[in-house]
Amino acid sequence: MIGVYDSGYGGLTVLRHILARLPERSTCYLGDSGRAPYGGRDVHTILDFAEQAVERLFDEGCQLVVVACHTVSCVGLRHLQQRYAGPGSHRRVLGVAIPGAEVATQTSRGRIGLLATATTVGSGTYITEVAKLGPHTLVSRAAGLLAPLVEEGWEDTPIARDALRRYLADLPGIDTLLLGCTHYPLLANALADVVPEGVSVLDPAPFVAERLADWLQRHPAFDTIDPTPVHRVMCTGNPERFAAHGARFLGRPLPEVETIAEVDGRLAPRDPSEAPTGQVVR
Ligand code: DGL
Fold first, then answer.
1. Which residue among 62, 69, 74, 235 is the active-site one?
2. Which residue out of 28, 62, 74, 181 is catalytically annotated?
3. Do residues 199 and 177 make contact, with C-beta atoms less than 8 angstroms apart?
């Protein structure tokens, strides 16, 4: 079973491509929607949340976890790999930033623009990864309004187009626009209207799925083909809301959404029917 982890709904846009590319694999998605967005959070808070999420997925039986979230991949992937997937470990943690940089340099003629969360941009990870691959340059703009706009369901509205225009004005001369946040593929219609002619808009998710398929072929010990694949979805926060909004990101209805919550520093299963209302004293 492949674990897929994101700060919330957005990673479902990556899961969508993983399911299409690897239909014979079981998956377990963990969306930390109750604590999203991560994009403006302190890095150590993100690392704490990411440790809890990855440990939950390992506890569910995943040996391989794909960190679909760009924010976590850009600040925490190395930490997660060193902590859980060092030499000799039977577990692996993969991210989206290296495949993202690879497909961007394959697509671009020289100047890549990146829209992403403030934490992703502030990490400088995409600049570093692109520089390793050749002479391309990458310019970036933190686009803090875009993920909340998509979560609100306003991705195809004049507000979304206006926000995109303003962000893109800070990325002059690019030939490729890399969508460095899992929410942004839902902005496809708005992007088609406002991106200057000749600029390719790049959602790295299909390439991430392709690279994952290639990696699994080379590392067969980390996951098995399943004759009757199972697809599970877990979230923190409200499961009904997750199911309703998640379908927009996955492009189809979600399986029953299981609830997890932080208990003593770990993410543990929780029965949502036991959620207290009104004043709560512990
Ligand atoms: N999933 C996050 C990412 O791809 C975006 C949303 C957030 O800020 O949590 O960077």
1. 69
2. 181
3. yes
